[in-house]
Amino acid sequence: MPSRAAGRAPSGRIAVYPGSFDPITNGHLDILERALGLFDRVIVALAKNVRKEPLFTLDERVRMIAASVGREPRLEIDAFEGLLVDYARRRQARALIRGLRAIADFEYEFQFAHMNRHLAPDIETVFLMTSEDSFYVSSSLVKEVSAMGGAVTDLVPAAVGQALKKKFKKKFKNKPSSVR
Questions:
Q1: CA–CA distances in Å: residue 23 to residues 27, 44, 46, 66, 76
Q2: 85, 103, 162, 180 — which has fewest CB within 10 A?
Q3: What is the pTM of this model?
Q4: Residue 62 backbone phi and psi in degrees, to 5
Q5: Are the C-beta atoms of 130 and 52 separated by less than 8 Å?
Q6: Per-residue pLDDT tens digits of the chain, which is 180 residues long
Q7: Active site residues
Q8: Yes or no: is domain 14-135 CATH 3.40.50.620?
Q9: How do the domains of the chain map onto residue ranges?
């Protein structure tokens, strides 16, 4: 699996920010920036979600995240399969970062956090509320709007906007500027 900081020795308070990030949005970046304010290191862990078929490959998602976050030495981009808590233990992380947008997110995340607590009582889940600018944005919604030719440039990093445009270019070949 790809890792942007392979071989780096763990140090300090480490958190894992898991997700499919298909694609990463400005809301994800907001949560990530705030997590870096709380932890010494944050690992963005791309999860292989067995319930979802991703639009972007794992390598494409790693590249988009790397292009979106720049060269932050306290940030690592990695990928994993299996139980999140097992991955967090292997990486010596003490916390899982989860973003919340709405009440529906909380209900799902609450169950998820309790199951992780049952499996690994030594790993905490830290919930961060998304910013007011991003509370309605999800990767799924961004993909859907992009697929229909809608503008999402203010919702995603530039690299993601370009990647979405390229993915959906064939669909809108008669309207090259419709996917923004």
A1: 11, 13, 11, 12, 17
A2: 103
A3: 0.86
A4: -60, -45
A5: no
A6: 444 444 444 458 999 999 999 999 999 999 999 999 999 999 999 988 667 789 999 999 999 999 999 899 999 999 999 999 999 999 999 999 999 987 778 888 999 999 999 999 999 999 999 888 888 889 999 999 999 989 999 999 999 999 999 998 865 555 545 444
A7: 28, 52, 101, 139
A8: yes
A9: 14-135
